Structure formats: structure tokens, C-alpha cells
Amino acid sequence: MSGQAVVRVKLLRPGAKLPRRATEFASGFDLHACLDGGTIEVTQHPVMVPTGIAIEVPPGLDAQFRPRSGLARQGVLSTFGTLDADYRGECQVTMYTLAPDIRYVIHDGDRISQLVITRLADVVVEVAEELSDSARGAGGHGSTGR
What we know:
Blueprint: E1 8-11, E2 29-32, E3 39-42, E4 47-56, E5 61-66, H1 69-72, E6 76-78, E7 81-83, E8 90-97, E9 104-107, E10 111-119
Antiparallel strand pairs: 1-4, 2-10, 3-9, 4-8, 5-7, 5-10, 6-8
């Protein structure tokens, strides 16, 4: 046994594709649209794009959907999303464009998002009366400079 975690994927429909790395050292696995041969137009209004797969992530791992840089360069984004270890439904990716004049057509099989899997930190959340001091303190957005 290699000690690698196993992420199980169920193909829900014909045309669904397994997530895969585009290159040997890619950190993310490409997710593909599964549109039963059709298309979806993406505009500024969020649209859910089905992938045709369900994923079983082992407890202790964190699976996130992230935008693809090639689409982001064109003003087409997918939202960050978390795939909980106990979810077994179809993975869908929320997509939108950055400007009203950008319209993008997604075709069946297109790469639409990245699936990145990491280990979760084993932590406990507890109530505290006081927190330790830091140089930043309570400084919020923009408090550390540009």
C-alpha cells in the first residue's frame, strides 16, 4: 500500500469524465462540463454547470473547486467551493463572467474548474476571554498597506 488517500468518483451519466491532472505536477484536477451534448451560456448571472460526477472524499481531506486560470484570463470565473466529505450528490460548478459584455459558451466536455485536494488541520475551536497581542491587532482590511 502506498499510503495515498483514495478519492472515489462515480460517473453519473454517459459523457462524464474523471477529474485528471493536465500535467504531472499540476496541483489541481480538471473538472469537465457534462451537458449531454449541449451547451450553457455563462453571463454575469451565476449559472450551475453540471459535471456528471459524484465524489467521495475521505474524512480528513479538504476538496475545493477553484477557477481555471485560462478562463479567468478571459473574464470567466467559477466560484470557490468546498466539497464536504459526506456529500454524495452530483458536483456542480457555479460560473459567471466579470462584465456584462462578456458572454462565454461552455460545451459538453469543456474543462470548467479545478479540483484541489489537501489535508485538513485537526483543530478544536474554543471560547477565550482574551486573545494574545499581535503587531497588527484589530486592524482590518487594508491595515497592512496596499
